[in-house]
Specification:
Mean pLDDT: 84
Number of domains: 2
Structural class: mainly alpha
Order of helices and strands: HHHHH
Strand content: under 5%
Number of strands: 0
Low-confidence stretches: none
Distance between the termini: 48 Å
Helix content: 55-70%
Largest sheet: none
Length: about 140
């Protein structure tokens, strides 16, 4: 049962987040409301939590899984703190490059190149296509 607690906690968080996001107004696919993306993200989190609950969790409980979890949590906290002052582009490139370099072990060049491409695609999708405005930061875009 002890192995199930993280999955149950994620499931509980996904239910609360989905409920709160639904209260914000979902909108439609062509005109998403403020709760649209949080709702679908919480649904994805809930599905992931259920999958973790019913599958083998031996990899999650392995002793080597603790350090990457701490590093990823710290990186997410830094991302949240730096998103507003630095903006989406710089923060996301740094975040993804750090994770791919430190956690995944990619070369620095591959990590930075992949982070730049992923960030550019994200920025184009949300800013140009969906017209979702993110923090501009020091670069102004």
């Amino acid at each position: 049962m002890r192995r199930a607690w993280p999955s149950l906690a994620l499931l509980a968080v996904s239910i609360v987040l989905g409920w709160k996001a639904h209260a914000l107004r979902l909108g439609t696919l062509t005109s998403p409301g403020p709760g649209f993306f949080p709702f679908w993200l919480s649904l994805g989190l809930g599905v992931t939590a259920l999958a973790l609950l019913v599958t083998d969790r031996s990899r999650i409980d392995a002793p080597g899984a603790v350090r990457p979890a701490i590093v990823i949590t710290a990186a997410l906290a830094a991302y949240g703190l730096l998103l507003e002052p630095l903006g989406l582009v710089l923060t996301t490139v740094a975040f993804l490059a750090f994770l791919w370099r430190v956690v995944d072990g990619r070369s620095t060049a591959r990590a930075v190149a992949g982070a730049a491409v992923a960030t550019a695609a994200t920025w184009l999708l949300f800013d140009a296509v969906l017209r979702v405005r993110f923090p501009r930061g020091v670069l102004g875009f």
